[in-house]
Amino acid sequence: MTTDLSVLGNSAIPHAYAALAGRAGTVVLCHALELPTLPNPLYAHYSPGERLSPKNREALRQKLSRKLERLVPRGFRRHRQVATEIHVVDATGPVHETICEQARALGVDLIVMASHGHSGMTRVFLGSVAERVLRSADRPILVVRSG
Description:
The chain has 147 residues and is α/β, with parallel strands linked by helices. It has a single domain (7-145), classed as HUPs (Rossmann fold, 3-Layer(aba) Sandwich), CATH 3.40.50.620. 37% of the residues lie in helices and 20% in strands. The chain has 6 helices and 4 strands. It has helices at 7-10, 13-18, 54-70, 95-106, 120-126, 129-136, and strands at 25-34, 82-91, 111-115, 141-145. A two-stranded parallel ribbon has the order 1-2. Helix 3 (54-70) links the parallel strand 1 and strand 2. It is globular, with a radius of gyration of 16 Å.
């Protein structure tokens, strides 16, 4: 299960746990941390933030891990058959590639994620991480659409 920690992204979390209904297993809650890159001196562009020091990056990772832990549904916080793993990973490239790499590395059976449902020009400019994961992943994907 991957989330961008938005309300919509988090709405797919119950679906990840529901996929294990009546069975033992592990839900991996994953967030890909997009790190600001150094600006290219040949192009003028907006940079979303400054580079994080290792200490600040670790503090941010811990904060995000705590947020993910709070998203585990109550009924599964002490569930005997269903475990939860929390992963905050650095997106060293495009987010969809990071998601697919993590799924392979962790050996997950199913990727669960939400789709923001952008269409038209918004989709052209913003793209769709979910769509890119669908095209790139080597395993099944459950996409929860915005409603």
